[in-house]
Structure to design on (80 residues):
């Protein structure tokens, strides 16, 4: 289940961005996941719920957009 590793890295990158931008709370993270990445969306969502920690708020949501190729990237984050 590589989704946990992927989400761990996403949260690490988001935490770094939050620190650089002086954001105390992240409310939303949007990622784009290509169909050819073999990523299971439900498992990715579960990993997010399991691993989220400060600066991600308890109510932070993960939005996932499906793409047609093999891309996987953070599209944007929302926070304050």
């Amino acid at each position: 289940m590589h989704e946990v590793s992927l989400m761990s890295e996403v949260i690490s990158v988001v935490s770094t961005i939050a620190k650089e931008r002086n954001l105390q709370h992240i409310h939303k993270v949007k990622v784009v996941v290509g169909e050819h990445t073999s990523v299971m969306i439900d498992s990715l969502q579960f990993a997010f719920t399991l691993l989220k920690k400060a600066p991600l708020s308890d109510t932070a949501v993960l939005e996932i957009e499906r793409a047609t190729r093999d891309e996987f990237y953070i599209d944007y984050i929302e926070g304050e």
Observations:
- The chain is about 35% helix and 35% strand.
- The longest helix spans residues 3-20.
- Helices lie at 3-20, 41-51.
